Amino acid sequence: MTQDTDSQHSIIHQLPPEISNKIAAGEVIQRPSSVVKELLDNAVDAGADQLKIVIQNAGRTLIQVVDNGCGMGKEDLRLCFEQHATSKIQDVDDLFRVRTLGFRGEAMASIASVAQVTLKTKRPGDDIGYKYEIWGGEEKSFEPAAVDSGTSVAIRNLFYNVRARRQFLKTDATEFRHILKAVQQAALANPELGFKLVADTDTIYDLPKEQPMKERIAEMFGKSYKASLIEFEEQTSYLSVRGILADPKLTKRSRGEQFLFVNGRPFQHRYLTHVILKIYDRWTGEKEYPFYAIFLNVDPTQVDVNVHPAKEEVKFEDERSVIKLTKSVVKKALNEQFLVPEVPRHNQHSRQASPSSGFSSDFSFGGSSQKQSWKKEPMKFPSRINFDGSKSEKKDSDFSRQLYDFEEQPAASSQQDQDPAPERMRERGFWQLHDRYILTQTRSGLCMIDQHAAHKRIVYEKALSATEEAIPSTQQLLFAQNVEFSASEFSLLEELHPILQRMGFNVQLLSGNTAMVSGVPADIDVGDEQSVLKSMLYQYRELEGKVELDERKKLAIAFASKTAIPSGKKLTDVEMENMLDQLFACDEPYKDPLDKPTIEYIPLEDIESRFR
Question: Which domains does the chain have, with CATH numbers?
Answer without folding.
Answer: 15-207 (3.30.565.10), 212-338 (3.30.230.10), 430-601 (3.30.1370.100)
